[in-house]
Design a protein that fits this description.
225 residues, alpha/beta, Rossmann fold, 2 domains, 5-stranded parallel β-sheet, 10 helices, 47% helix
């Protein structure tokens, strides 16, 4: 089954380029092209894509606002948003994560990296590694509007010991395959533990698991991997 991708960018030439790239991948298809955030939300509801490639700077409803509307829609719970922008700075990454984006890339990314990023986000992985964004995590911890539940350490009691261990490894930037190798599990079992933890904690993706891991003290900046 092909990954269904919705493109959202106000520049027709850029949309055409991304569309050609996505269509070049045997495992992907373009299900729509949106010209702004409001259009992206409407088309997401209509087409139910796996991933939305979302530009930030668009007229009217911008990409950050549209991301929040999509990730906050109960009917679009399985839709992931990958934010693309020519403006790569911490404030925009922070805003994208708060809005519920599962990844953030600059438009200068290599074509093969963008296709890989779509696959990563569609699989439920967070594209940003906490190792590379530790400063952002620190800022997220102090902010009440990141979209993740405002938990304390005791709330992690809903998790099994193994699930807590897996959440900590997610917060250190490990993929399911990495976690499987570290804990001598199958990749499928590792993925199951991650998904169960997300369900129990009421979060939609791994990026929010990272926030929770730091906010509750399960993981602290400077902890060894």
């Amino acid at each position: 089954m092909s990954l269904r991708v919705l493109l959202a960018d106000d520049q027709a030439l850029i949309r055409a380029g991304f569309a050609a790239l996505v269509r070049s991948a045997a495992d992907m298809e373009v299900v729509g092209e949106a010209v702004d955030g409001e259009d992206a939300l409407g088309q997401a509801r209509e087409t139910r894509p796996d991933v939305v490639l979302m530009d930030i700077r668009m007229p009217g409803t911008d990409g950050i606002s549209a991301t929040g509307l999509i990730t906050g829609d109960a009917e679009l719970v399985d839709v992931k948003v990958l934010v693309l922008t020519t403006f790569e700075d911490d404030d925009l990454v922070l805003a994208a994560l708060r809005a519920g984006a599962s990844g953030f890339l600059g438009k200068g990314v290599e074509p093969v990296e963008l296709l890989d990023a779509i696959r990563v986000v569609a699989s439920g992985e967070a594209l940003l590694s906490p190792k590379a964004t530790r400063g952002l995590i620190d800022r997220l911890l102090a902010a009440p509007t990141d979209g993740a539940p405002d938990l304390v350490g005791a709330d992690l009691d809903v998790l099994t010991e193994r699930e807590r261990e897996v959440v900590a490894l997610v917060a250190h930037g490990l993929t399911n395959d990495d976690i499987a190798a570290r804990l001598f599990l199958s990749p499928l079992t590792a993925k199951t533990h991650v998904n169960r933890a997300m369900t129990k904690l009421g979060v939609r993706d791994r990026a929010q698991l990272v926030v929770i891991a730091y906010r509750t003290g399960l993981v602290r900046a400077g902890d060894p991997d």
